[in-house]
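Supplementary Data S3. Sequence and C-alpha cells for construct A.
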Amino acid sequence: MGQVHEIAESLTALKLGEPQTYVDLTLFPLIGDPEAAPGYVLLDEALERHLVHITEVSAGGRVPELAFENSSDETVLLVDGDELVGAKQNRVVNLSILVAGGKKLVIPVSCVEQGRWVYRSAEFQAAHRALFARARARKAQSVSDSLRSRGERRANQSQVWADVADKAYACRVESETLAMSDIYVESAAQLDDYVRAFRVLPGQRGAVVAIGGKVIGLELFNCPTAFSRYLEKLVRAYALDAIETPALEPRVPSATDAQAFLDLVWATHAERFPALGEGEDIRLNGAGLAGGALAAGGRLVHLAAFVAP
C-alpha cells in the first residue's frame, strides 16, 4: 500500500480550468494533452455497435454477477457505475473494467431495480445513465472493503437498494419495480437543463465536481475523447443529487477548494489488485476518500474519487 504513481503523474500533468456552474452544481475542468487517444471503446458505444453481449450468468441468474462477452477485436471500457437495463433486473457496474477483444468475463454488478426478477429481454442494453453520485460513493467504499477483506468486488446490495429508495422519495417518484431508471425518467426535464449548461473544453479529460459550494468528487479519463462522451452521464448523475436541495443562488467553491481536493487524491494511499480484465484495480485508502482507479500499460485509464460518505 502506498501512493499511486499513475494517479500522481496524471494529476500533475493536468491544469485546473475555470469553473462552470448551473444552479448548485459546479464542474472545474481538468485539462490535459489534447492529442491523447483512448485505446478503447466505452461500454455504451460497444453495446450500440453490438461489439459486446451482456446476459445473466444463467437462466436463473445471480443478482451480483453478469456474463460479459467482447465478441469484437476492440478493447472495451466499462466505467464504474454504468447502468445496464433489461434481462431479469437493471444493474450497475461495480468498478471500472477494461476488456480486451475476444474475452469473456463474469462482471460484478449491483441491482438498481429491487422489485423485478423476471426477464424483459435476453440481453442487456445501454442506459446512458450511471448510478447517482452519492450512492456511487457508498458503493465504491463497500466494493473496496469487500476486495480487501474477501477478495471479492461486491457492493453492499442492501445499501444500494436503500439509496435508490431514498432518492425516489426525495424526488417524489413512484416506481412499480423500485427502479433507478424511473427516477431519471421522471426527473429528465430538470436534468436536461443541467446537461445543456455544461460544455467540454479542448483537452478536457475530467472534472472536479461540487454541489452547494462543496467539492464532493472527481472523474478522470486518460484522454479527452472518452471524457467528452461521458460528460452527459456524469452531469446527470451529479445533478440528480443537486436537485434534491435547490439553491436560491448558485454557491461556487473556490479554485483553492478544488485544488485541495486534487492534492488530497494525489497524496492518497491505495491498494492494488489484479484486475478482472486488463491492468490493475486501485482502491483508494486515504483518509476521507472513497473510490478507485484502473491502470493498464503503465497509465491511468480511469479514476473516480469521492469525499467518503
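Construct B, processed identically:
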Amino acid sequence: GQTVTVSSDVMRQFAATRFAHPKKSIIIDGDSNGGGIVPIAYRKSSFTNAVQWAAGLELFLLIEDPRRVFFTTDHPNGAPFTSYPELFALLMDRNLRAAWLEDLPKSALDMTTLPAITREYTLFEIATMTRAAAAKLLGLSDRGHLGEGALADIAVYHDLKDRAAMFRAAHLVFKNGENVVRDGKVVREIDGKTLNVAPPYDRGIDRRLDGYYEGLYGVPRRLFTVPPEARGFLSAFQDVPCAA
C-alpha cells in the first residue's frame, strides 16, 4: 500500500528518491540539519517488500508472550497507523494470511516460515500487546487496565468475524471516561496531551555528562536543552512519573 517515509537522514532519503512512488520528494539540507520526505508504495510483487511484510508478521507470531512485543509500524515509514486494523486481522486469522501469501513471489516465501505458522492471536493477546504491556513497560499505573485509579481510556468493539472491519470502526471509545466515538464516528473532541515520561535516575550522572559535553563540544550541556518557553502551550504537555 501507499505510505510516505519521513527522516532526518538526508542522504538516505536522497538515495531513496529513485524508488519514490509517485515520483515526488522533498529534500532539505541546512547547517548541520535537514530531512527528507519520500512517498513509497509497498507492492506485493516486490521481493523486498514481501520479505519485509512476512518478517514482521513472523516475528510477532513466533514471540509467544504478548507482554514482550510491542506493536508499531514506525508510522508513517513502515505503514500509516490507519493500517493497524488490517495488521491485527492478519495476526488473528491464519486463513487471511494464507490468502495474502498466495500473491507473494515464491522467492520471498522461500525466505520465511510464515506459511507454516498456525498461531492466531486472541483478542486478549491483542489487548495485552497494545495496551497493558506497553503501559507496564513505561510504568504508567493509570493506563492499560480497568482497575481503580485508571483513566478509563476504553475501546468497545462488536465481536465481528471480519476483524479488520471490527477494529476500523469501534462501537464506543472513551477518553478519560468521556464518550468520544460511537459506531466509528467521532461524537466529541477532547484535547489530549503529549506525555513526557520522567523516570528516576542517579543524579550523579549529571556531573559526568557536563564534563563529557564540555570536552567533546566545548560548550555547556545546558545549550542542548529545550527551554520551557520554546515548547509553546505548556498545557499541551503532561509530565508522567515512571515507576522504577
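The chain has a mean pLDDT of 90. Helices lie at 10-16, 47-62, 84-92, 94-101, 106-109, 123-138, 163-168, 205-217.
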